Amino acid sequence: MREAERLSALIGVIYDAALDAGLWPDVLARCAEFIGGPAAALFSKDAASKTGDVAYYAGIEDHYKHLYFEKYIKLDPLTVGHYFATVEEPVSVGDIIPYDEFLETRAYREWGKPQGFIDVLNVALDKTATSAAMFCVFRHERNGPIDGEMRQRMRLLTPHLRRAALIGRVITLKTAEAASFADTFDGFKDSLLLVDAQGNIVHANASGHALLAEGIVLRAAGRRLTSDDPDTDTALHATFAAAAEGDDAVGIKGVAVLLVSRNAERYVAHVLPLTSGARREVSRSYSAAAALFIHKAVLDTPSPPEVIAKSYKLTPTELRVLLAVVEIGGVPEVAEALGIAETTVKTHLGRIYEKTATARQADLVKLVAGYSNSLVG
Hints:
Blueprint: H1 3-19, H2 24-35, E1 39-46, E2 51-58, H3 62-70, H4 77-81, H5 93-96, H6 99-102, H7 106-115, E3 117-127, E4 131-140, H8 148-171, H9 181-184, E5 191-195, E6 201-204, H10 206-214, E7 219-221, E8 224-226, H11 230-243, H12 247-250, E9 257-260, E10 266-273, H13 280-286, E11 290-296, H14 304-312, H15 316-328, H16 331-338, H17 342-356, H18 361-376
Antiparallel strand pairs: 1-2, 1-4, 3-4, 5-6, 5-11, 7-8, 9-10, 10-11
């Protein structure tokens, strides 16, 4: 199969997985192969609590999957690094922590190395104050270091994975038969609109009808879906027209369109093309080019660690050491918990003191407590 055809077919099954979650393991296996690694996962991490969960994965043994989220997520230097994650921008180990330091960590020595994994390319699909929804592809020692081609292939798939994952999360159902898509979601609590290539509304669930009747976010001018904001209206209709041309044409359009209501409330809209794959049954039944999911946006305030890191220009590694010092205490204990040498901890601690204009660990505890109290109180 030619490269362009291979990519097009892969994008199609990614979107099918938005409606049928059972497809994700096979889709992730195909994504990993395309990008250049033996394993991939869709997962979430809470960097503040150092917890997480994997939604779907491929190429990783169940034993290691459970072991990571039960034990090594707390030791993984990349977890704190996700405070700095920019949505849709791939990051490797070396982008977060010096690679030689990574090789010292218990997370690598006890989890990654036994599996032959030497690196991982992560991309944030969504991010809140404390957590991130991530997609990753592992690099095996037989594949060699992450290179520019792997990053480029990740970028080709990321907008499509993000759209599918966000819509799948909004749906919150294990599976949904594409042929009965509209019937299935007539009772869905968030708004769902099916539109044709011209932006005409061909179906709406109850929440969608209520949203249109209210007319403060989107409204119907005859059958045509419109927004009072010209830029939003143009963006949505460009996406609907592209959806009629197939999955590839949609690209990065309509992944997450911000809608601001007349009373200043914020909503997010996600556009799913319906003209390819299993989704074509919906298109045939309703003459729809795309499905538009609309839900109220959650206020996204920065977390205390993220504010601290930005205020003092701390690197991800320095932030990781700072939080460990505050939580655990002495250098030997921090080194043991992080799985790195005491000399490495001391080096980072010296830089932290310099950047924060402090001189003692007690000062660092007060600094972190002050930020936490000011944001929580």
